[in-house]
Amino acid sequence: MSAIAAKPGANAGSFQPIPSVIAIVIAIILVVVAYFLGSSGILAGGAQFVLQTFCLIILGAALIAFGVHFVPVGGAPAAMGQAPGIATGVAMLATGAGLAGLFGGAWAAELGLGVALASGAIGGALMMAITCLMVNISYVFGMGIPAASGKVLKDPITGDLQAAYKSQGTEGHGLPFISYVGGVIGGLFGGLGGTLIYIQLLDFYNVGLPALGFVGAADINMLSVGLAGIFAIGMFLVIAVLSAYNITGTIEGPHDPKFKRFPRAIVAAILASAVCGLVAMLVVALF
Amino acid sequence: MQEIIIGIGVTALAGALAAVAGAAEDTESNIGSQGDPNSQVQLAPQMGYTHRIYNKAVSGEPPAYTLWVTLACGVAWAFLMLGVNAILAIIFGTVLATFVQGVYATTAYLGRTASLSKFGQPVFIDVVKSVTTVTMAHAFVAIFATVTVCYLMMTVIGHPFALPLLGIVWGLALGAAGSATGNPYYGKERQYQNQKFGAGVPISASGNIVRYAEAGQRSSIDNGFFTAKFGGPASGICFGLIVFFELWRTIIFEDFLAGWGAVIVGALIIVVFMIIDRYVEVWARKNYGPYTVEA
């Protein structure tokens, strides 16, 4: 097949059942492996605890993959006012918001799972709320350009007409309100997912490290926080980059037709996080 | 009570330092042309427009700043563990990270520009000499301020993450905030000053960047001079607000409702920003009006 013939057609980004089923089957096999490692005592804490940790890590990754699709990213065209969205990369912005959320979630970890998850979600959303506002301020007051979407005739939330506010020769610019809301929701899911992964790994290491022979609660906690933080950040990057490939460059937010591609990214995230999660847990394995 | 007062003071200091970091980061990236608008700097010679603009975007700003800030945090942390004075330790870390940034900038400029030789784009050694040191100076300010913010978070505020981990989080957030806010101003307003004000750059004009100044060819240092008037401060306010509100809502309201106070206040702040954004959007639509007649 030539390169031209291999170009994606109209169904680019559509859900592909066979690869998806294969991915889910491999992920299920990895879940069974994790259960076996827990029941055989290789991973400390018992089969139920290991299974619960592993499944919640996968859930966290799926939330991140879903959230990344909400973030309005315009890349290089947005930097010239040629396309709507934020003028940076998908993975970078989503990770920035997710890690800001992780910062808040890790800080609130001692207050319980609910508060930590909510704090992480709000941290990510707050980062995006401020960033998106400053993007619009930059466009409106720095460059004299109003926000306009290139993908819809009317803003689905405010009902504002978009086409007339699009300058000639461009696909739109700035962040219409739907994109702003999408950015905040993306930060919310990113922070939530990242914090969920972090908390699960933190609890797991706090059980696993003493079983390995580490002593001293303060030292164990410091090591657990470090390990959980590094793996949570690493997994966040993996999922954000995977989702960025699914988006292929730019997306305006939840109203963009590309948003419908998210099931594919969730399936990929489930498999990738199953592999990464197992590696992260095997760090404290009792071989 | 004393803890809260110290916390408020540190929050304000961290917010101010973050604002400085954001402004320096955006100016550094614009002088070095590292953000998304660099696609036009890379494209211009291919369209027949040779130029003297610096070109060091072999990675986006967020991963680059993650590397530099984390490197500085790691070195500073190692010196702190050896019992070195905190300010000295942060300076040692920042100096090393700045040298890494200088090596990165030099090799990136030479590599990216040399790849355009087939389009007649020369490598200017005087550009390397004059611009690299200026980007390094701005990078020093951005990295030093961010590492200090991370140090304050670790020691005074008591965040559980170690300094290098905080470096990853806030280095990435710094790059993300700076590139999101500052890139359009550099890309649209500076690189395309030859296009109409108050409208996006038509796709057909891609690559036709402004290459000449009042006298002679435009220098990348002039780009920093220009964007430091709006893009830099806007990026600084963006990153400063992120750091300030993230710390403020937690320090003041974490003790209310068993931790839910900080969450509720965070949600309220988001709603306030949302209302401001909507106001700005409507204000622009009313005052600038549509480009064509509304259907």
Detailed description of the structure:
The complex is a heterodimer of chains A (287) and B (295). Chain A is mostly helical. In chain A, 65% of the residues lie in helices and 0% in strands. Chain A is built from 8 helices and no strands. The longest helix of chain A is centred in the C-terminal third of the chain and has 35 residues, at 177-211. Chain A is elongated. The mean pLDDT of chain A is 88. Chain B has 295 residues and is mostly helical. In chain B, 71% of the residues lie in helices and 0% in strands. Chain B is built from 9 helices and no strands. Chain B has helices at residues 2-32, 38-43, 61-81, 86-114, 125-157, 163-190, 220-227, 231-253, 260-288. In chain B, α1 runs antiparallel to α8 and α3 packs antiparallel against α4. Chain B is flat, with a radius of gyration of 21 Å. At the A-B interface, α3, α4, α5, α6 and α7 of A face α3, α6, α8 and α9 of B.
Number of strands of chain A: 0
What structural class should be given to the helix and strand makeup of chain A? mainly alpha
Shape of chain B: flat
Distance between termini of chain B?
60 Å
What is the percentage of strand-forming residues of chain B? under 5%
Quickly count the helices of chain A: 8
Residue ranges of chain B: pLDDT <50 for 5 or more in a row? none
Percent helix of chain B: over 70%
List the main descriptive attributes of the protein structure presented here.
heterodimer; A: 287 residues; mainly alpha; 8 helices; B: 295 residues; 9 helices; flat
